[in-house]
Amino acid sequence: MDKTWGSAAEAVADIPDGASLAVGGFGLSGNPTALIEALYAQGTSDLAVASNNCGVDDWGLGILLGAGRIRKVTASYVGENKEFERQFLSGELELELTPQGTLAEKLRAGGAGIAAFFTKTGLGTQVATGGLPRRYDGSGGVAVASPEKEVRAFGDGDYVLEEAIVTDFALVHALRGDRHGNLVFNKAARNFNPLAAMAGRVCIAQVEELVEPGELDPDRIHLPGVYVHRMIEVGPDTEKRIERRTVRTEGA
Fold it and tell me: I need a labelling partner for 243 at 20 to 30 A (CA). Which of 62, 81, 91, 158 fits?
C-alpha cells in the first residue's frame, strides 16, 4: 500500500513519447512542477496534454511547450503564454479549446467511468456546430477544424454531447498526502488537480508534506488514494509563482 517513490525522475521514468497527460493546476496554482521538470529532463516528447492552461513561457507546462515537447493541448485558457500563441498560429501546435466547466466535467467523467455526457454549455456556438480552428497551416489557413457535435433534446431544451477525457498518466500537486495516496489540496490548487488525478490511468502526485496513514482526518480528504498510484514528497519550500503581479506604491 505504500505508494511513495524515491524521486520525481523515477516516478515519471516510464512515461513514453506520445503519451497523453492530464495535468493539474489552475493558472500557476498547484502546478506539479517537480514532475514536469523531471519529464523535461528525461526528454519525453510528442505529448498530448489536458490541463486548464499551459503555464507561462518559463514555468509549469510552459517549459515543455517551449522545448517543443507538446503536440496537442486540451485547455480552457490559453493566455499569459506568448510561445503558446506563436506555436498555435504557426501550425506547430494543436489546440482543443474547451469551456472551463466542460473541461472539468470531461476529466471527472473519465475518472468516474462515464463515457460522455450532455450539457447546455456551447449550445448554438462553434463549440457545438464545429469549425473552431484546432491547427493552422502556418500561412493563416485552418488545417484542422473542430467537428460538429451531437445535439439532442432533453426535457426543457437541447444539449451538446461531450466525450469524457481519459489519459495515460496524470501529474498532480497536493498540499498533503499519506503513504496510501489520500490527498489534501490547498485552496485554488483544488480546482483541477483532483479531476486530473481521476482522469489518468496512472496518477503520479507530488506532495508538500507526506504523513503516515491515519494522520489525515478522513472527513478532510479531497481525493481518496484509490485514484493515486505513485507519490513523491517535494517539501513545503517548493517554489510557487503567479502569472501576473500588480503592485502599488507605498501609501498610494
Answer: 91
> What's the pLDDT band for 240 if we cut at 50, 70, 90?
confident
Chain-centroid distance of CA 115 in Å reads 19
* Burial zone of 118 (CB within 10 Å; 0-12 exposed, 13-18 middle, 19+ buried): middle
Name which of 153, 150, 175, 170 is nearest 236 in CA terms: 175
Say how far apart CA 192 and CA 44 lie, in whole Å: 23
Secondary structure (3-state) at 34: helix
Cα separation, 161 vs 31, whole angstroms: 30
Residue 121: count of CB within 10 angstroms of its CB: 16
pLDDT, tens digit (0-9, with 9 covering 90-100), for 153-164: 999 899 999 999
What are the CA-CA distances from residue 23 to residues 152, 189, 236 (Å)? 31, 12, 20
Helix (H, G, I), strand (E, B) or coil at 2: coil
Q: Which domains does the chain have, with CATH numbers?
A: 8-115+164-233 (3.40.1080.10)
Strand partners, 118: 161
Closest CA to 182 of 225, 230, 220: 225
* Segment 71-85, tens digit of pLDDT: 999 999 988 889 999
Show the cell assigned to 252: 498610494
Q: List b or e across 129-154, with b for residues whose CB sees 16 or more CB atoms inside 10 angstroms.
A: beebbbbbeeeeeeeeebeebebeee
* Residue 189 CB contacts under 8 Å (≥ 6 apart), including other chains: 24, 25, 26, 29, 30, 173, 174, 175
| Interatomic CA distance for residues 78 and 222, integer angstroms | 27
